[in-house]
Write a structure and sequence with these properties.
Elements: E1 9-10, E2 12-14, E3 17-19, E4 26-30, E5 37-42, H1 46-65, H2 68-84, H3 86-97, H4 101-120, E6 128-131, E7 138-141, E8 148-152, H5 158-171, E9 175-179, H6 185-196, E10 204-206, H7 211-220, E11 226-229, H8 233-244, E12 249-251
């Protein structure tokens, strides 16, 4: 997504393709600095969340079968691409948050550093060994993907939030559905579209929309194995309650 081309329509990313909300509805995102229109954003609902989760579920087994070294290599390539588009990414953050450019650039740098760190883990995805109660035996633990991860982020530091959640989730062999804040849809679209250049279709899906409309069906989906959330304590308590009913893993 190019700033110079003008950000006007922000769609979901499902199975590697840009898709409008099934209802056809959008909402407007204004620039905080001057109140002018930045973009129109897909107003997703339960049907759109279901499609994104289904795409992630379909893509996850093949992605998990890749070696950690290969997954790390792809994340490194993705991180290098983000670094190369540093100025473009920061300009988007400035437009949609009203932050100073210096802060936005620093946030892109933080996202890049996270990407390089996670990529390096491709060579260090260790399990553990320990003693056994049985003679001449050793107990070994292996790290396995969880499945489909729902990644719900706040608006205050968008690009680092995407990096902190998406890079570890997909590196570990999970597929994911990212729900950006409705206040930062443009950077979410930028990051999601960049990921499509390096990750197989469906490994990362992006669902735009209002938190109250797109968030609950994502948290409550029985096909979501893990929910990672950054935001208010009130919403975190609600997520813990709903996901806990089906024993999904929760990180808040």
């Amino acid at each position: 997504m190019s700033v110079s081309a003008g950000v006007r329509e922000v769609a979901n990313v499902v199975g590697g393709e840009a898709k409008a909300a099934s209802s056809g509805e959008t909402f407007e995102k204004l620039r905080p600095a001057d109140g002018t229109l930045l973009c129109r954003v897909s107003r997703s609902g339960a049907d759109d969340v279901e499609a994104a989760v289904a795409a992630a579920q379909a893509a996850q087994p093949a992605w998990a079968a890749e070696t950690p070294v290969e997954r790390g290599r792809l994340i490194r390539e993705l991180t290098l691409a983000l670094q190369a588009r540093r100025d473009e990414a920061a300009a988007l953050v400035v437009e949609e948050t009203g932050k100073a450019l210096a802060l936005a650039l620093a946030e892109v740098d933080a996202a890049v550093e996270m990407g390089f760190f996670v990529a390096g883990e491709g060579r260090r995805l260790y399990g553990r060994t320990t003693t056994s109660a049985m003679p001449n035996r050793t107990v070994m633990t292996l790290r396995r993907p969880v499945g489909v991860a729902a990644l719900i982020v706040s608006f205050n530091t968008p690009l680092p939030n995407y990096a902190w959640k998406v890079f570890p989730a997909v590196f570990c062999g999970n597929a994911a559905v990212l729900k950006p804040s409705e206040h930062t849809p443009a950077s979410g679209a930028f990051f999601g579209e960049l990921c499509q250049e390096f990750l197989p279709p469906g490994v990362l899906n992006v669902v735009q929309g209002l938190g109250a409309e797109a968030g609950p069906p994502l948290v409550e989906s029985r096909d979501v194995d893990l929910v990672s959330f950054t935001g208010s304590a009130e919403t975190g308590r609600s997520i813990q309650e709903h996901a806990g009913r089906r024993l999904a893993k929760v990180v808040t």
